[in-house]
Design brief:
Layout (H helix, E strand, L loop, with lengths): L3 E3 L2 E7 L1 H18 L6 E6 L3 H9 L6 E11 L6 E6 L9 E9 L3 H12 L4 E9 L12 E5 L5 E2 L15 E4 L2
Helix pairs in contact: 1-2
The chain binds inosinic acid.
């Protein structure tokens, strides 16, 4: 694996497909154990998490459901301020064991705004699985219950993650060369 170019920027190999697959097997093993009798509902956040969610879901040996949602943020009124809404969330979460699937937690802003909305629906439990976390970028602290990799505060692409729309199809994760 050599360097690649996406739009105007150069990226270098960072996490191989094999190391990602290995971490996913580990996480799935924990989930299989923790949710053995529970029939959890996985909620994957599009677009970035589609590849991770798909590979993770294949490794689950338990009864589980999955749905995919998209988060849209828009400017609300003066009193509501910035609002985030979930598109496609048509499941009843009341009493369910819910697991959010995210590609990457960066500042934590997205999840810190979205999680209260989910809690409002009174799920029995609410956990987060994320492939990547940039601890140094934290502005809104989020507890990640199942984590693939903790990474430095560098921009990454591949394995579902994009740089301005491109790079999602790359099977490995590449890091920006600065
Ligand atoms: P947060 O709200 O700051 O935690 O950002 C989360 C979202 O930002 C992720 O779901 C990604 O879509 C995007 N993001 C953050 N860092 C990166 C990156 O390094 N590469 C690609 N997308 C990223």
């Amino acid at each position: 694996m050599g360097e690649i170019r996406v739009h105007d920027k150069q990226f270098e190999p960072y996490l191989s497909a094999a190391s990602i697959a290995e971490r996913i097997k580990d996480i799935a093993g924990k989930l299989n154990n923790d949710y053995a009798e529970k029939k959890p509902l996985f909620i994957a956040i599009l677009n970035g998490s589609f590849m991770f969610a798909s590979d993770l879901f294949k490794e689950l040996a338990i009864d589980a459901e999955i749905c995919f949602i998209k988060l849209a943020s828009y400017k609300g009124t003066k009193s509501t301020g910035h609002v985030i809404t979930a598109i496609g969330l048509d499941m009843d979460l009341f009493g369910r064991d819910v697991v959010i699937v995210e590609d990457i937690v960066d500042t934590g802003k997205t999840l810190s705004e979205f999680l209260p909305q989910l809690k409002h629906q009174q799920p029995a439990s609410l956990k987060i699985v994320a492939l990547l976390h940039k601890p140094e970028a934290t502005v809104f602290p989020i507890t990640i219950d199942y984590l693939g990799f903790s990474i430095p505060n560098k921009f990454v692409v591949g394995y579902g993650l994009d740089y301005d729309g491109l790079g999602r199809n790359i099977p490995e994760i590449f890091k920006l060369i600065e």
